[in-house]
Amino acid sequence: MTLTSDQENLSLIAPELPEILVRRYRLLRKIYYSAPVGRRSLAAYFQVGERVLRREIDILREQRLVAVEPRGITLTEAGESLVTSIPPSLKSFLGLTVLEEKLVKLLRVKDVIVVPGNLENDPIVLWEMGRAAARILRECLKPGIVLAVSGGTSCAALADMLSEAPAPSDITVVPARGGLGEEVDYQANTIAARVAQKLKANYRLLHLPDFLSQEALKMLLREKKIKEILDLINSACILVHGIGTAEEMARRRGAAPEVMEMLREKGAVGEVFGCFYNSRGEIIEHVPSLGLYLEDLGNRVENVIVVAGGRKKAGAIVAVVGNHPRDYLVLDEGAAKKIMELYGETGVNF
Amino acid sequence: MTLTSDQENLSLIAPELPEILVRRYRLLRKIYYSAPVGRRSLAAYFQVGERVLRREIDILREQRLVAVEPRGITLTEAGESLVTSIPPSLKSFLGLTVLEEKLVKLLRVKDVIVVPGNLENDPIVLWEMGRAAARILRECLKPGIVLAVSGGTSCAALADMLSEAPAPSDITVVPARGGLGEEVDYQANTIAARVAQKLKANYRLLHLPDFLSQEALKMLLREKKIKEILDLINSACILVHGIGTAEEMARRRGAAPEVMEMLREKGAVGEVFGCFYNSRGEIIEHVPSLGLYLEDLGNRVENVIVVAGGRKKAGAIVAVVGNHPRDYLVLDEGAAKKIMELYGETGVNF
DNA sequence: AAAAACGGGTCAAAAAAAGACCCGCATGGG
DNA sequence: CCCATGCGGGTCTTTTTTTGACCCGTTTTT
Lengths: 350, 350
Hints:
Two copies of one chain form a homodimer.
Chain A: H1 6-13, H2 17-34, H3 39-46, H4 50-62, E1 66-69, E2 72-75, H5 77-94, H6 96-107, E3 111-115, H7 124-140, E4 146-149, H8 153-161, E5 172-175, H9 188-199, E6 202-203, H10 214-221, H11 224-234, E7 238-242, E8 244-245, H12 246-252, H13 257-266, E9 268-272, E10 275-278, E11 283-286, H14 290-294, H15 297-300, E12 303-307, H16 314-321, E13 327-332, H17 333-342
Parallel strand pairs in A: 3-13, 4-5, 4-7, 5-6, 7-12, 12-13
Antiparallel strand pairs in A: 1-2, 8-9, 9-10, 10-11
Chain A binds a DNA duplex through α3 and α4.
């Protein structure tokens, strides 16, 4: 006996309803993020004709949710308050709330937030995930703690969406890892600095390549400055990180073909901090570097906030966050549903 | 600060939504009550073209909620379970749940059930009210008690919708009043008997005209049989009754023009058991009869279940049930919203 | 000052919905 | 037993809605 959600009930007698709701919500959200914005760019974004978008806008205008001005389309006050207040209703209606509950039990984590939409289809979903993660982060902050943030687009989204309001006193933000040769916007250092700025907190950076030989690492550890920061990182109370798919991360690190093959053989699906996980959640390989040093970081911090989205990340998410009762998991509808599919429970039907 | 319901949120971005939901639900409900039923009669009932109704049916059939057979349209199993399980979701969505809460506080009664729809537009609403009242009645039943039911269409609906299942042992059903020269189907005696039959309980009838002179009454009270039943009625633990508008009840009792005028002058709005109430809830007049005898019945029973619907009854409902903390009130959306209007709180917008 | 982008208007094409009517068939009453 | 009734389904035309395409005057930006 599975308890039926409102969504199942109401969608049955009005099958066109979820589509309408999601469409309008996405439109409203897009305007929220890129106002003032013109019809044509909106139409292009959603890949619909200009005329059909116009009709939608007309409806939203009649509801006094958007204002249409010569500069473009903007949300009214009512529209803004709606776009921030509606997600709970919408999530409940779309069955995402029950999905969250299922995932909490399935993955045995502390809490799960499922953001409507699919990251792979709509870039805004990433921002929404950032917002959700930022909200959780704010709740976890306490005076005097150390906050470690990792790199990647997901964490960058968190930094972007974090509101600019002071945090509890004496918080230090540190990168959870070194550089990875990525774009600077997505490096842990950059993100740590931006988060610290938003929180009006202190921050320390780790100017160190992520990939390093054991010898080089040992030598560097004798450097007082570096040792200091590494200790700081290891004393972190909160850890925020994304999740990579094994294949893409290996490729991005420029792994040799034989390494790729080895990873595939061992069944690597997910990656975090240079540690590769198989689908049973075991670490099967780590790059010889800080990964070694940071490997058990996740075991000591009080709160871990994991942010990841997109259907292709589903396997990696399951591998990485499974059975971690202190983890908060923020993901998108696409990944969440894919996970349920992996577990054979088709769950909500769309 | 009024808490916003899901309805307000979602209806804002999809204004056509409540209409669709209500339309489909009414259709489903109508089929439920009159299956197997044909397209044409359904179209006539809802006063729409046959073709538009057909489209609705097609949608419901695609959802596998109805089965279309040569004999007519029937609900599938899924449809039946939906039509009985959906009202909570729908009510919450339409804001009726918050309406119920407001009315409980406003009228200071034990509980309020608002049934979707308007009795004056859709006769089925009466049946739904009957179902809701029947459910409450079942909850109130205890072994050995006496149940008094009144007359009228609302109580008749309760009797109709009461499921045919045994009640706790040794329950006696009695009419709460005598006859009123109405159709036999709506007389208290008839209804009491039908309720008893459904509950598989005992019943006693009161073969006495409702309108009687004091002398005649006194004489009849010497009759042992009659006295017995009246005592039984007065020992009732549960009372079920409807509510009449003062004007209509006076007319139906064949009151003389001068009496009508007097009632109007005194501001009579509601009637129960021959007692006329003004809008402040005071009894301003009662017909010389059992009313006298039964006047304070309502003050002694443990549970009172009041069933009334239609916008025109709003005033009467407020007058009669105001400030009775042991009353359950079952009414329809029409009456409920009209009551809120009377109180100046427009509340939900349609 | 020029160029780009904005919303709004308009008109024809296309699609969807609605109305009207007929047909074969199962059912139920005579 | 048969026939009249009411059933769903099909189909046609008409009407309404939706969509696409394009232009225009104005504001904003560069």
